[in-house]
Amino acid sequence: MKFFIDTANLNDIQEAQSLGVLDGVTTNPSLMAKEGITGKANILKHYVAICEIVDGDVSAEVISTDFEGMVKEGEELAALHPQIVVKLPMIADGVRACKYFSSKGIRTNVTLVFSAGQALLAAKAGATYVSPFLGRLDDISTDGMNLISEIREIYDNYEYKTQILSASIRHTMHIVNCAKVGSDVMTGPLSAIKGLLKHPLTDIGLNQFIEDAKKMNI
Ligand code: E4P
């Protein structure tokens, strides 16, 4: 399973990259706003800065909600850097734009997916990635992980090439469960990725080894 980090924070991206396990980055307008990035030129520059840190796909989301606007913005984003993937909302014009970009060989990530039917549409439109938001489904007492399993089953039935990019990951067990049900990619915060490292027996065992190594007088 590929690991993407879901942030526009350059320090977090750098830290995840230095772990050696990072495969890409996803951003969205909320994450960009959180970093205080304003103005089109700065936004575009920030996407390029992200691409220069990570060796993998970087999703940059369009703001427009009409087909023509999405095409214009998406083409501009895709031209920024070869690692950019155009992120499009799961609405009718977004599906149309996805089909348009896939016919031009421009990679896409269809976002704000909350049902298997929406994921089926994204695959038919040739999306490179589909982003089901599992955390936000869990937030409203719906089984987010079940959606990932449903999409896996549907995509496997028809051998769709669209990659399942499990998004809205909130914690470490989301990552482990995504891997168990066969998600192709997960995107989550640095804290959830670093959580995978933790086990008290590892710490206890390492302390013991360090203490015993002192007895060897190396
Ligand atoms: C996905 O691409 C989104 O950026 C993201 O995962 C949304 O997560 P949130 O529900 O934590 O905002």
Describe the protein's architecture and organization.
This protein has helices spanning about 10-20, 30-35, 40-55, 65-80, 90-105, 115-125, 135-140, 145-160, 170-180, 190-195, 200-215, and strands spanning about 1-5, 25, 55-60, 85-90, 110-115, 130, 165, 185-190. The longest helix is centred in the C-terminal third of the chain and has 15 residues, at about 145-160. Helix 6 packs parallel to helix 8. It has an eight-stranded parallel beta barrel with strand order 1-2-3-4-5-6-7-8, surrounded by seven helices. The protein starts with a strand and ends with a helix. It contains eleven helices and eight strands. With about 220 residues, it is α/β, with parallel strands linked by helices. Strand 3, helix 4 (about 65-80) and strand 4 (about 85-90) form a beta-alpha-beta unit. The structure holds erythose-4-phosphate (E4P).
Q: Over the alpha carbons, how many angstroms does the gyration radius reach?
A: 19 Å
What is the overall shape? globular
Q: How many helices?
A: 11
The CATH topology assignment is TIM Barrel
Strand order of the largest sheet: 1-2-3-4-5-6-7-8
Give the N-terminus to C-terminus distance in angstroms: 40 Å
The fourth-level CATH homologous superfamily is Aldolase class I
The pLDDT mean sits at 97
Number of strands: 8
The CATH C-level class name = Alpha Beta
**Structural class of the secondary elements?**
alpha/beta
Described by strand count, sense and barrel closure, the largest sheet is: 8 strands, parallel, barrel
Number of domain units: 1
CATH architecture: Alpha-Beta Barrel
Each distinct ligand: erythose-4-phosphate
Which strand-content bin applies to the residues? 15-25%
Proportion of helical residues:
40-55%
Give unreliable regions as ranges: none
- State the order of secondary-structure elements, H for helix, E for strand: EHEHHEHEHEHEHHEHEHH
Family: Belongs to the transaldolase family. Type 3B subfamily.
Pathway: Carbohydrate degradation; pentose phosphate pathway; D-glyceraldehyde 3-phosphate and beta-D-fructose 6-phosphate from D-ribose 5-phosphate and D-xylulose 5-phosphate (non-oxidative stage): step 2/3
Keywords: Cytoplasm, Pentose shunt, Schiff base, Transferase
Organism: Flavobacterium hydrocarbonoxydans
